[in-house]
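Is this the right way to post structure tokens for a design question? Let me know if I should format differently. Anyway, here goes:
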């Protein structure tokens, strides 16, 4: 009998672990669809011929433009250039109506965190891929997964960029990691 108890304890643990690894991660994240399937490759491939800076620019004062506004798309897409279903949907819903596209960021940090792109791109000379993976070559858009408890989005990589990730790289570069460097 003791033996049988041990087996069912083991089975119980296995079920609990499986639930934790397989089911729980799906339950704690919401999956929110992007407004439409924007394709980076359509624009950044040789045929598209655009550079990252054409849409994500750094102003002289260090201000990073982030995700481009509709007006940066509308010039080229006043008329269909490719004529695909997704482009027609984009033109009908946004270009024609002038409604701003409600993009959601995959890397949004909490309000109290200060992250300057200029410092990392210009001074530290880091590539976009170091923190964002191959998003600049994506042909479609994954749903944005947001943790129901913290509200933080998973990045393209597989999870949210956490305080420890920032601090690790800063320490490797001999930075002091004072709280007020990153928190406002
Ligand atoms: C400099 C001109 C230019 C700008 C600016 C531009 N596009 Fe495009 N876009 C293109 C071209 C050219 C293609 C077609 C590429 C091809 O034929 O494969 C395209 C394709 C597309 C498609 C269809 C993709 C597909 O696979 O069917 C969509 C949707 C789209 N663009 C949306 C946007 C949005 C949103 C913006 C602004 C963030 C934008 N474009 C900015 C030139 C531009
Ligand atoms: C035609 C304009 C256009 C060009 C050119 C472009 N992007 Fe984007 N980018 C967008 C739009 C629109 C979004 C918002 C939708 C999305 O997440 O893909 C975006 C989002 C991103 C994000 C997502 C940030 C986040 O976590 O939410 C990254 C990273 C990015 N772009 C990197 C790049 C890189 C790297 C290149 C050059 C290889 C590039 N982009 C070229 C329009 C552009
Ligand atoms: C050191 C890491 C790092 C590097 C390098 C980096 N990013 Fe980011 N990026 C982030 C973080 C963190 C956020 C979230 C910022 C926030 O929420 O305050 C972000 C947000 C974004 C966004 C979302 C829109 C927004 O609100 O700004 C875009 C677009 C983006 N990055 C594009 C790029 C591009 C293009 C490059 C390369 C030229 C790049 N990033 C390089 C870490 C990085
Ligand atoms: C891959 C490496 C790397 C990652 C990841 C990274 N940083 Fe940095 N960061 C740097 C480097 C290197 C510098 C110093 C650049 C210089 O001054 O030459 C820096 C500088 C800064 C500064 C300016 C500090 C000052 O006092 O000058 C802030 C703020 C900052 N990072 C915030 C963040 C935050 C917030 C995150 C995480 C969301 C982050 N960083 C992730 C490499 C990184
Ligand atoms: C290199 C940048 C960096 C430094 C230095 C830093 N933080 Fe953070 N901190 C972050 C980022 C990014 C987040 C949000 C992501 C996360 O929760 O990990 C955060 C989140 C937090 C949170 C909230 C946790 C949550 O889940 O909401 C607290 C509290 C905090 N930091 C306190 C501190 C204190 C105290 C210090 C100094 C001892 C410090 N931080 C130094 C980047 C930094």
């Amino acid at each position: 009998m003791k033996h049988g108890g041990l087996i069912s304890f083991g089975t119980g643990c296995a079920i609990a672990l499986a639930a934790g690894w397989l089911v729980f991660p799906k339950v704690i994240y919401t999956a929110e669809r992007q407004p439409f399937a924007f394709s980076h490759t359509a624009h950044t491939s040789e045929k598209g011929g655009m550079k990252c800076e054409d849409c994500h620019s750094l102003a002289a004062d260090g201000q990073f433009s982030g995700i481009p506004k509709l007006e940066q798309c509308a010039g080229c897409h006043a008329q269909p250039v490719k004529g695909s279903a997704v482009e027609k949907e984009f033109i009908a819903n946004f270009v024609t109506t002038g409604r701003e596209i409600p993009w959601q960021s995959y890397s949004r940090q909490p309000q109290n965190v200060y992250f300057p792109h200029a410092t990392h791109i210009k001074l530290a000379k880091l590539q976009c891929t170091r923190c964002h993976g191959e998003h600049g070559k994506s042909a479609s858009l994954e749903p944005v997964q947001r943790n129901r408890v913290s509200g933080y989005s998973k990045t393209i990589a597989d999870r949210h960029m956490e305080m420890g990730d920032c601090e690790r790289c800063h320490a490797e570069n001999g930075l002091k990691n004072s709280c007020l460097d990153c928190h406002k």
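Format looks fine. Someone answered above. Worth noting: The CA atoms of residues 70 and 98 lie 8 Å apart. Residues 1-32 form one domain.
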